[in-house]
Structures are given as C-alpha cells and as structure tokens.
Amino acid sequence: MNPLLDQLHPYPFERLRKLFAGVVPDAAHRPISLGIGEPKHATPPFILEALAANTAALAAYPPTAGSPALREAFGAWLRQRYAIEIDAQSQTLPVTGSREALFALTQAVVAPSASGSRPVVVCPNPFYQIYEGAALLAGAEPFYAPSDPARNFAVDWSSVPAEVWARTQMVFVCSPGNPTGAVMPLAEWQQLFELSDRHGFVIASDECYSEIYFRDEPPLGGLEAAARLGRTDFRRLIALTSLSKRSNVPGLRSGFVAGDADILKQFLLYRAYHGCAMSGMVAAASIAAWGDEAHVEANRALYRDKFAAVTPILAPHLDVRLPDASFYLWAGIPAAYGQDDEAFARDLYAQYNVTVLPGSYLARTAAGRNPGAGRVRMALVAGTAECVEAAERIARFVAEGRPA
C-alpha cells in the first residue's frame, strides 16, 4: 500500500463518532444535527425533471471535457456573476463536485522538487480537510498559514516565512471560508497574486459557498479579483465551484473549474487517465441549474431568514456573529469550558441531543496553537424551525452552566 496513506489524519466526522461513543443523549429531546454541512433544502423540481428527461445519456460514455454546451453554461454563468470575459471552451472544465476536483488538481499540479526538497502546499487554518489530504498524497508538505481571529480568522499571508514560499507549489484559498464564512477582500488577493508572480505557485480558489451570503454585495471571487487587477489571463489561478450548496443537489456531484487555460489543458490530460467524467444526464441537469438564478435567490432568502432567526438566540450566550457568507456559524464556547471544544460538544450532545462539530477538528496545531480550539461549527442546513429549536436548546444548555 502507498505509505503516504499513513500520513492522513482521521476525518473530523470519524473523530466526532469516537467522541460520542458510549454517550447516551437525553431521550426527552429528539436528535438535531448541526454537525455536517449537507444542504437540506428541497432540490428544485426543474433539475429533477432535467435528470429524468435525459436518462438516454446513460447509454454512452461521457467526454472527459464535457460537451461544448456544458462548458458554455459555465462560461455564461461566470460572465453573468462576475462580469468577466472568459473563453468557456479553453478556460473551464466539468468536475464531479469540488471535493474530487480539489484533490485531483493537487495531484496534477504538485511536482517533485528539482532541488530534492519537499514541495509545500499552503492552506488556511482552520480549513477543509481535503486540502491537507490532497497535499500529503501528492507528496507535499502542508503548511498551515496563520489566521487572525481579530479579522474573522482571515489568513495572514505576510506571516508565511520566505523559505516556505520558496518551496510552495500550490496555495488553497477558501472564500467564502469554511468554517468561518469570511470573504477575502481585493487587497489580499492582490497580495497573493504578487506572491504567486514572485514564487510561481498555483492558486486554487475554493468558492463553493459563493452564492449563500447575507449582505447586498455578493462575495468577491478569485477570477473577478484577477480581472479587476488586470490579470485577465487568470495566470496560475484556478477557481472551483459546484452546484451542491447553490442548488441543493449535494448528491448530483456536479461542478466546474475555471481559470488558467494552460493549467486546465494539463488538468484535462490528467483527468483523461483519472477517469472522472460527468454523466450526460448529470450534465443536462447542470446546464439547467447554472442557467437559472430564481431558485438560487429563493435559497439565499431561506438562509437569510434562518440566520436572522438563529443568531440573536445564540449571541447572548456564545461568541457568535453573522458571517459574510456560507451556511455555518463559527461560535466561541463559554469561558467555563476554556478551550475544550470537545467537552462542550460532548456535554451538549448528552444533555440536549444537539450535535455540533468541535472547531479543533477543523484545524491543526501550528506554532503551538490550534486556531479552532475553543470554537464549534454549526451548520444551519435544516429547516428554520429545527435550527431555531437547536439554538434554543444550546442557549438553555449554556445558561445552565457546565456540569460538575
């Protein structure tokens, strides 16, 4: 077996299962999970209809690059959403969800260092766990860029040592962030682009939460930032997005990558061997989904109403505020628990049958500090009534104080 597999950490949900092992929650409360970021809003009927109308496509192997019509659907959406110019045929490719694409892109980009030193992949901290796993299995060393809690855990790119940048081949950006919901501003994009020009690394911009936001201005995307700064060739930049959160189809496994045409040409070569091609049936449903904004606006309104109802219930009891975007609350736990987010999550589950994810499971200890410690992630993906009930239970739990 590949010895690099031994470097992988247990996935957060595996750790959560072990944390709760042997705990019997109070049967007076029905279970409510805020632990997993799986959308629970209804899938739009027109997407289901497009799937059903294209079952004949199952009789043919799909092209790895997707059809011209599929890629044009990606391009049309990018032009409408970000007001950028893009050649959909050479600067976009279909992927079977952003998770698969993040992993595969890393394998295609990272190369053994000519100097013999181990290549580096820089990722935010806290972070989506695929970044680390993809880096390790590509033979790279993950570097966990420091984050600033005072700026909603924004990445402090300037604190990454010069010797790390010199070995860096890839940088992961997550904007809007998981778990923080923070959006990276233009000035930080400019800083990262300048570093990329200096050191030659590729930027992978994970933007799967871009359409769930709470203010009037939509989140800035990586391609949009590049275009504003005159980088219209999107050099060394690949943006990744999917339909899972935007259109409530996490089981469809449909998304796309867009950006530097030279990188995508090589990525297509990798994918021809990697074997991930989007079914024609899924492609037809995807074209329909990317071409419609009404369901996205309705979905966003549901999240806005939900967060408006839940956040005021929790704010008097936890360090929590409305994020820029995403469907997570990134909450600081009460002082009675110190930094022990595991104990908080376990006690909450035992007493009120509500599941939240310890923040330390989403980060790594770097420079003697785990930036997720003392926080929990709450995924507000269920209906408003269920999320409100969970928030009310959490508020009661905190008000009662830590059990002796």
From TrEMBL:
<dbReference type="InterPro" id="IPR015424">
    <property type="entry name" value="PyrdxlP-dep_Trfase"/>
</dbReference>
<keyword id="KW-0032">Aminotransferase</keyword>
<dbReference type="InterPro" id="IPR015422">
    <property type="entry name" value="PyrdxlP-dep_Trfase_small"/>
</dbReference>
<keyword id="KW-0808">Transferase</keyword>
<dbReference type="InterPro" id="IPR050881">
    <property type="entry name" value="LL-DAP_aminotransferase"/>
</dbReference>
<dbReference type="Pfam" id="PF00155">
    <property type="entry name" value="Aminotran_1_2"/>
</dbReference>
<dbReference type="InterPro" id="IPR015421">
    <property type="entry name" value="PyrdxlP-dep_Trfase_major"/>
</dbReference>
<protein>
    <submittedName>
        <fullName>LL-diaminopimelate aminotransferase</fullName>
    </submittedName>
</protein>
<dbReference type="GO" id="GO:0030170">
    <property type="term" value="F:pyridoxal phosphate binding"/>
</dbReference>
<dbReference type="GO" id="GO:0009016">
    <property type="term" value="F:succinyldiaminopimelate transaminase activity"/>
</dbReference>
<dbReference type="InterPro" id="IPR019878">
    <property type="entry name" value="DapC_beta/gammaproteobac"/>
</dbReference>
<dbReference type="GO" id="GO:0009089">
    <property type="term" value="P:lysine biosynthetic process via diaminopimelate"/>
</dbReference>
<feature type="domain" description="Aminotransferase class I/classII large">
    <location>
        <begin position="32"/>
        <end position="393"/>
    </location>
</feature>
<dbReference type="InterPro" id="IPR004839">
    <property type="entry name" value="Aminotransferase_I/II_large"/>
</dbReference>
